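Notes from hallway chat w/ T.B., transcribed later so I don't forget. T.B. wanted the structure written out for a chain they're using in a teaching module, and asked if we could keep both sequence and structure tokens in one place. Agreed to drop them here.
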Amino acid sequence: MNITKVRAFQDNYIWILADENQKICHCIDPGDAAPVVRFLESTGLQLSNILLTHHHFDHQGGVSELAQQYPDIKVYGPDDARIPSIAHKLKDGDVLDISDMHFKILSIPGHTSTHIAYYEDNKNLLFCGDTLFSAGCGRIFDGTAEQLYQSLQLLKTLPDKTKVYCAHEYTKNNLHFARTVEPENEMIQRRLNEIEKKEDVCTLPSIIELEKQINPFLRITEPAVIKYASQHGSGISPVSVFKCVREQKDSF
């Protein structure tokens, strides 16, 4: 199974999982149909499944057009009326078998109320949409801070070598913010230096092990993060610290 990024809009990644043996592929969060169609035409692969993480348009806006062009595809995603094209609704704990992968469905609300992730534990793959970014996390829309905090705590428990395929190229900006939260964190500065040496770099996938060292939203109980939050009027409970750091990132 080959995993390929397809860029969309300004900073979205549509992930394509290509099964070269069967000449088919599976597409995750196609907000735009056009780049997916170009990929299919250039590779000769047949689109088999679409997997969606949440309802935002930049993640599912291309589904209708793709379904018209490739009427045999199956569309999977969360049970959410805001996603009109899902024929196969998934919930926490479900297992989705496609090609040689066995995705466990994780409910990870917060960014949205029905957000899900696709986790393949045998291959250490996580497709987490907009919940966890490298060095950051998603904004809170129709979920809650408490939900997002708990969702990130869940993802933090995944094996260290789990590859994190999120849906946006936000890493550089996230690291600049992370450095303001933990100015003495050498890993944050080292990772930022690596990225800034290259132009138009894809920083993904990350891995959970790295995220636990550089991502302030996974480091809420670290003294430096608590200190940063307290300087911005936060209490010291983990959820209070998380809310404060997320609010500061919103205006960064």
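Follow-up for T.B.: Residues 134 and 148 are 15 Å apart (CA to CA). Might be a good example for the class.
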